[in-house]
Amino acid sequence: MNGETIKEFLQSLLIAGILAFFIITFVAQSFVVDGQSMYGTLHDGERLFVNKFVYRFNAPARGDIIVFSPQGAPGKKYIKRVIGLPGDTVYIKDGTTYINGEPIEESYLPEKMMGDFGPYQVPAENVFVLGDNRNHSADSRFPGLVGYVDYDTISGKAFWVYWPLSRMRVIDHYNYDLSS
Predict the structure, then answer these.
(1) Domain encompassing residue 29
(2) CATH of the domain at 77
(3) Spatial separation of the C-alpha atoms in residues 22 and 94, rounded to whole Å
(4) What percent of the chain clears pLDDT 90, i.e. is strictly above it?
(5) Could you read off the pLDDT of 11-33 as tens digits, one per residue?
(6) Residue 41: how many CB atoms within 10 A of its CB?
(7) Which of the residues 80, 140, 155, 157 is marked catalytic?
């Protein structure tokens, strides 16, 4: 190897490092699902990519699956589904989730949710999140642990499961049809 080849190799390595840093910081990042709170949709141990870019231009939407840092566990990352948006009133009665008084269809839930919760009034610049496996999820129903999720704590929107290869897929974000 001559000096020119080594110089070229080091330049390529530096450029690759800068690009990787830019992508991880601003565009996409890997995340590992830890636990059963999103079971049905996501499984413990799955690896996925999170789009960190999307919420720089748009606010989260109902049905988005997001990764965020919960207020009760700074430094940790949770993954949940956005149910309520700023100004929404969310409550759960007899296993059905209501947004602004309207029941929502949640065909992705693995079982009927136990217990009644709310009403919760979602503050500005926050979202209300729930795990898909409601009976086994720490989410916005628990204010000391998760509570409302501030926009500033959202890392991004999950979009693609890449591991294990046998379950590789684009993540389906549910679109709630509310008449109001």
Answers:
(1) 3-170
(2) 2.10.109.10
(3) 47
(4) 51
(5) 777 777 666 665 555 556 778 88
(6) 22
(7) 80
Tokens at 33, concatenated: 């699902």
User: What CA–CA distance (Å, rounded) separates 117 from 119?
Assistant: 6
Please count the structural domains in the chain: 1
- Please indicate, yes or no, if residue 177 is contained in any of the structural domains: no
Q: Order across the sheet with 117-121: list the strands.
A: 102-103, 96-99, 89-93, 117-121
pTM for this structure?
0.83
Look at residue 162 and tell me if it is in a domain: yes
- pLDDT number for residue 38: 92
pLDDT for the residue 53: 81
Longest dimension (CA), the chain: 74
Can the peptide bond before residue 123 be classed as cis, meaning omega within 30 degrees of 0?
no
The bridge status of strand 65-68 relative to strand 117-121 is: unpaired
Whether 32 and 47 have beta carbons less than 8 Å apart is answered as yes
Tell me whether residue 80 is one of the annotated catalytic residues.
Answer: yes
Report d(CA 88, CA 44) in Å as an integer.
30
- Active-site entry in 37, 137, 140, 155: 37
Q: Which residues pair with 98 in a beta bridge?
A: 91, 103
Whether 179 maps to a domain, the answer reads: no
Give residue 135's identity as a one-letter amino acid code. N
Residue 9 lies in a domain: yes
Nearest residue to 79 via CA among 24, 132, 151, 147: 132
Active site residue 166: no
